[in-house]
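Archive entry: two folds, one per protein. Generate the first.
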Amino acid sequence: MRDGTPAETVNFLTKGQQLRKVKRSGKVYLRTFLFDTELLRIGYRDRICTTNKINLYLKSHKIGSKKFSHCASGSPNYIIRLQDIQEVREGFNSEVFTKCQKGGQGANGADESQCFSIVIGSKYKTIDLIAPDKQKRDQWVQGIRGLMRKMQQASPAELHQLWLQALFMKADKNNDKELSLAEICELLNDVNIRIDKSNAKKLFEQSNTDTSNRTRRGEETLNQEEFLHFYKLITNREELKAIYDRYNKNGDEFLDVNELTSFLVNEQKMNVTMEQVIHYIREFEPCPELGEDGKLGLDGFHLFLTKNDNMLIKNQAHEQEVYHDMTRPLSNYFIAASHNTYLTGDQLASRSSVEMYIKALRQGCRCVELDCWDGPNGEPIVYHGYTATTKILFEDIIKAIKMSAFETSKYPVILSIENHCSVEQQKRMAYHMTSILEDMLYATPYPRDMAQLPSPESLVGKILVKGKKLPETVEKDDDGEVTDEDEASQIDDPSVKEKMAEKKSSKKLKLAKELSDLVVICQSVHFKSFEDAREKGNCKQMSSFTEDAALELCVTKPKKYLRHNRCQLSRIYPSGLRVDSTNYNPIPMWACGCQIVALNYQTNDTPMQMNSAKFQDNGMTGYLLKPSFMLRESPFMAGEPRDCQPINLTITVISGSQLPKKKSDSADIIDPYVKVQVYGLQVDSTSQNTTIVKNNGFNPQWNCKLSFHLNVPEMALIRFIVFDEDQFSNNEKVGQYTLPCTSLLPGYRTVPLTEKDGSTIYGSSLFVHVDITYLNRIE
């Protein structure tokens, strides 16, 4: 692999370095950290470590750092996988360091130049560390970032080799760098391979080139190179070879440039030049001499079909494209939005965290929520009012938003403010936003007679404030009163209702002029009726609806709702009954043109997976142009799809590779089947299943053709779910992947699988063939 880390830095870090680890409580512990540059992992232990390498005994697919249950002498107590690291931050740039600094603890007296934080996992947990001095801190930061680049730049072959090395070390429990047949059979069971022991022994003997290597009991063993050959024999994929043979017209051992071109054009529906085909061959052929000669062998073809660029979805992470027209009014777009963004868990007692804003913004979210209340020392705080959720400073959130707002998308961010503060602390909120966000803050007064909202393109790099606006009749320097709309009133919890009853004395809220002036084009108003909004409202005004209220309008007045959403923004938020932070189905709201459908980003349930899939499109900008039938002067309902192009979609689920074992019984080989589900308009929503393959989670073969007719593919999401069939209990979900129908690529494609929390299950995938037939457009 290409490595951007200086050799002396890597050598220094592999020997181990004592760092101080800061806990959330502010307590500091001395730990020894060290690198494993071969397996791209970081280990740390609670005593000085003299080993130069990490002895890996980590169970596959664990997130973040997990404690070993069977540590060998000299091995680390904890491990951090490089693929779980989101970023490395220098200085006091985490909640833990900020809390220590403001609490007067000063990170145990450390200078900011000594401090850094490793951000890991889907919850953006931080490991906060203090190095002995700035030079050693910089070595760690540069070293980790260098290893992250190393993984990002790794070829598919190198990543596969890395995974196999990890398998070998996991199975090598006595750390003698050899595996017996018994150890290999145990390993095969761990990765979902069921094979007769006599067949395993035959392949073992074929791979054993040095029979002198034996255990103390005299058993023959395989070294790492021999194990890699054994693994290749046992994982031969006949379905890929069949495709390869079909295009290997010369009958030799290689595809030439013309044969690979034929495959790419006829099967993958790609427009490629000869130069591009030659580039593919040189990139994926393991033998450099053959690659230079324009020849691609079966191994290279295998790597090509399973590479990132051959995934099912368009616009992969390294090739994102913004292809929607971004010059239309804001009301013409679906906008990725988060509800109670600060929460890490449930709505009643979970922890609030600044990191959740960073996470949401980096996922492409463009509308985040802040519930603001009076805090101590004159500083406003954010938490879920009347509940036991923890409190964080408004100022810290604004700083985090400034840092992360435009890392993933350059298009505008909306701060949805639910204001419960006194006038004085509202002025403090306005001060923090203006002083911290500076030119990012969009506070320019918009013309009174504006007929439509500005476009995302005209607001690039801008942060908008959504909140209450004082009437124009209020004098220039005066504060005023506005209606107080408290989302907490929807929470179905006795203690919350009791606290609200005690504290609620008026439905009016005093509003500071300074805060009101920051609200320009997202002015919150109470929704009375569509007729009232059309007669008295304007495009700068927007209303918020509970999911229940929105769904009722979707059912009873869908055309009026759709017409309303052509001009004004609508924000939808979860019912107060969802105290566990589950999510509602966003599709009915999208079907009526609702733009800001806010979900609980901390809960990666099916609705959130649908949301994430939808907003993968258009380069993860967080803005998606609505289908044309929603934007007409007299818009058509999605249930009456005119100006749409229906499709016939055929997905052949061919095979699976390295499917994960079910969590409830890791000793059992799974019996997998695949459900392909369409989420969309009611007329399009359906699902079909493959057959069940018994006792094979490693390379199951289905070859099942599933066909779907979609009337409005622009509104459809396609979801692949892998289940383990169980006759005696509920079938367990072991992996899934969801994507927008409009991003499907035709041909032979690899479908990556993810965990419930959205993290990728390394090495696990489905292999499918996709055929899309476009039908006559409905005018």
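Generate the second and append.
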Amino acid sequence: MKYAYIIIYFGILIAQDVPDSFNYIPTNISGVFQGQITINGSPASGSDWVAAFDGDGNCAGASELVFDGGTSYINLSIYGDDGTTSEIDEGINSGEEFYLKLWDSSNDLILEYPDGFDCWVNTNGAPMGGCGGVENVYDFPSVDWIATLSASGGPDGSSYDLTFGFSPNATDGYDDNFDIYAPPSPPPPAFDTALNWGGDRYYRQILSGDGELSEHEYGVSFAFPSDNIINISWQNTGWDEMMSSCVLQDAFGGMMIYVDMLSDSSLILDNPAFTTLNLKVTPNAYALPSIDHPPEISYIPNQTIENGEDFISFDLDDYLTEVDGDEVDWSFDMDGFVPAINISGGERDYDLVFGFNFAATDDYDHGIDMYAPPPPPPPNMDAALGWGGERYYIQILGVDDGEHDLIVHLQYPDDGIIHFNWYSDGWNDLVSSCILQDAFGGEMINVDMLSDSSITLNNPTLTTLFLKVAPNLGETQTRDFIVDVDDENIVTLSYNDGWIGHQMVMFTATDQTGEMLSDIAIVTFTVEEVLSSYDNWMPSHVTLNQNNPNPFNIETRISFNTDISGFVFLEILDFTGREVRTLVLNNLDPGDHSIIWQGENNQGDILPSGVYFYRLSHSQDDRARYLTKKMILIK
């Protein structure tokens, strides 16, 4: 169900049934928060809404979820505070923490994400890099089950809904995310009712679902209307699955009123002496929500040795955390092909990343691939890769023989023009062919991407192109450097006599569940010439710091320190280990040094989202050693 936005002077009033607290005031500055929403591990509904709130409870933006392909996506515009209206707090300030709340429409509950975010930046309506992400999943804890009874009475037909139930995320006291207090009863003869628990009055009181399956007793208080008639009703379908018993009885042990709410569905009270009933509920056994977490790999140190020395063997399991206790399989890869196409039009541009890697499968791989959300409404420009019926910004396939056909989905801007650009240097070494063609077998568009580097489309009927790419299997292994992982996950490294160089190895841990969740770590191994008197220079006299911020969107700072003068080489490497940018190539004096990188390559083109590495060498007498660190660019 889609709701129309009604713009009024003081803000935006969204769907009538959505909570009033989700109303917000739009401003001319905003950033888009993207991700996926689940409730207790299951996808939220497309009719649910998500909203962002500042620490004072002011709503800074709200939107309905987009349900596509079994996944609920967030595409939430979060508005910034308008500095020209100091008397009104419309949104978020840079650095201010914000919180996500979800309106669960089916249960009419507002759920709160347990963690806050302090990453908001103004992107003028574009996705915020490093703040959310289409592939990120945000799981909202909710109730395990709830039930509601309705009570009505009086000449005006006043009605109240009283909700009770259990949740593993609730306590037996007041919980802001679940419970709703009821105000004091109005003076008679006004009709009124409320749940009583712990001495307080509630319209909704959810108790702790801690596995305690004993009977829990609520009070239900009534103030009778002038005609002394109260009608109580409930829809008990499915209640017997949630409760072993549910009884509504008088305060005298059920001598005059005893109703089995699992079999009956209504009750009429006409005796104003019964101002209190007891609601006795015994829950059935139920399992706490089960969420499969991906394995996590901590930092695996790089190794640098001199020619003739041996690398240190290590146990991959020493760097593994598997919170679910799932069985994990390790794999590794030393090279791959991971290029990008930049597609732009109107005020938008997208980087679509494709390729092959031994650590990848032909399905979605956590930590490697990135889903794309559904396209925005026309005439907004949009682009995404299509594979297996899903939309991707990044789709890396497994390495096997033959041609692979990916789809490029397009949506044109107002002017009907879309530009494709790519940087194909080195592609010939890794793929035998890479063709971009129309859906008619190349009758109108047939571009050899290994020789060309751009194309402009001006025909809005061409909304689908095919990207046909075949890997060159003969160039996917480095033979001079050998990695062996035994049955105990012990890594042994060796190299051929006389080999000098460095090799990046990507280790992947994949849990053996239906989801096949995984994590990766990329380690650099370097073999250098014998350095004689220069043996002890690195790394004791040079420090390479982690870039900040990381991940980053617009720019990041890389800093290092050296205690001796010398020739410094600082470069950026892509996911496959190819140099894409040289940042420093100069003699430097001792001291602290830093440089800003804005995500561009040596040609000045902005690089796509993904994992990159920065590598520092500092040489004397033409001899060098390397320090390498990883960073993440998110656009």
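Annotation attached to the second fold: Confidence is low (pLDDT under 50) at residues 1-16, 474-479, 531-538. Residues 336-475 form one domain.
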